[in-house]
Specification:
single chain, 102 residues, mainly beta, 5-stranded antiparallel beta sheet, two-stranded antiparallel sheet, 56% strand
Length: 102
């Protein structure tokens, strides 16, 4: 799965968001970026007063769409990105609300 950072009329950068197989510490070195991306853990995540099972945490060692800094993504099935941590700058982005349509 790709993630792109865009600005009007231009793509500022592309990185992998998650990779397959879902094997902890299986490192992939994509040709589109520097550093590796890997599944660091599968966790339970408390979100909006409920616990979500099987949240995958992917670590990108040098995320080009985040100024080449290490980034952790917390991704939930059927929801998407719950949380993003920019490690070097100590910035945390968290999803505040979500609606699942069926």
């Amino acid at each position: 799965v790709w993630r792109e950072k865009v600005k009007p009329g231009d793509v500022a950068g592309s990185t992998f968001l998650l990779i397959h197989p879902f094997a902890v510490n299986h490192r992939v070195y994509p040709y589109t970026q520097y550093g590796a991306i890997y599944l660091s853990s599968i966790i339970y995540y408390n979100y909006d007063s409920l616990t979500i099972n099987n949240v995958v945490v992917f670590h990108d060692e040098k995320n080009s769409t985040e100024n080449d800094q290490p980034t952790d993504f917390y991704i939930a099935p059927n929801i998407g990105i719950l949380k993003k941590e920019l490690i070097r700058d100590s910035i945390v982005w968290e999803l505040k609300s979500s609606t699942i349509l069926q």
